[in-house]
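This part of the workshop introduces the protein records we will be handling. Backbone structure tokens are a discrete shorthand for how the chain folds in space. Once this layout is familiar, the rest of the handout is easier to follow. The record below serves as our worked example for the rest of this section.
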Amino acid sequence: MIHRASRLSSRRPGFTIMELIIAMGMAMVVLAGTIVVFSTSNQAYVKQDLVVSAEQNVRSTMEIMSHELRMAGYIPMTFLSGEPDEITADVSSQGWSNGVLDRIEYASETNLTFVADTNADGILETITYALDGNTLLRKSWDWDNTARTWVSRTSGTDEVVVLAENISSLQFVYTFENGGQGQPNEADATTTNDRDDIRAVTIALTGSTRAPVTGDTYGNRRLQSYVQMRNMGLETSTH
């Protein structure tokens, strides 16, 4: 009896090598499936994050531009024609300089320069929106009434501010006093559809993702906004 019990006790339960191999194989299949699902989900999340970031970039930029363009042409009365502080110059060394202060200094399909006291602080600004490659720049100059000239901002920052990066296109389409739309034409013999006839502008802004979303393809987000320039068309003189 003792001998038989000894033999039985030596037979301990366990797994054969074949069973271990099969179990490990099944575990590897499950693990591989989990990795594939996680990787796919992570890639989808990264792509969606890139697209959302690009859309937010365009949306926030559009908000800034729309806010300022609504103020285009707002000039404090003291600077108007015939007043003691009348401005009789514009920013020097610019392609649109003509020696005369205009509410909209330059307007094209991809570039817009206007004059306004954007935050109603009594300091007049000349502001330009333009693309430099894929970077949307805002250039600004303040009117120094003592020096009687346009200068860079005195806050220590440069006059050039990056509004947004990864911008693939910027387009302006103007609405004129007569209801027509298009680009201003100062060269023709008529006095309609000129810069001073602009009453509104439609901004079309397209932003790209900062990295490809599929292969070498970048995602794009395009927003369009119609902005009425409520100060355009007002008299430029108090006399």
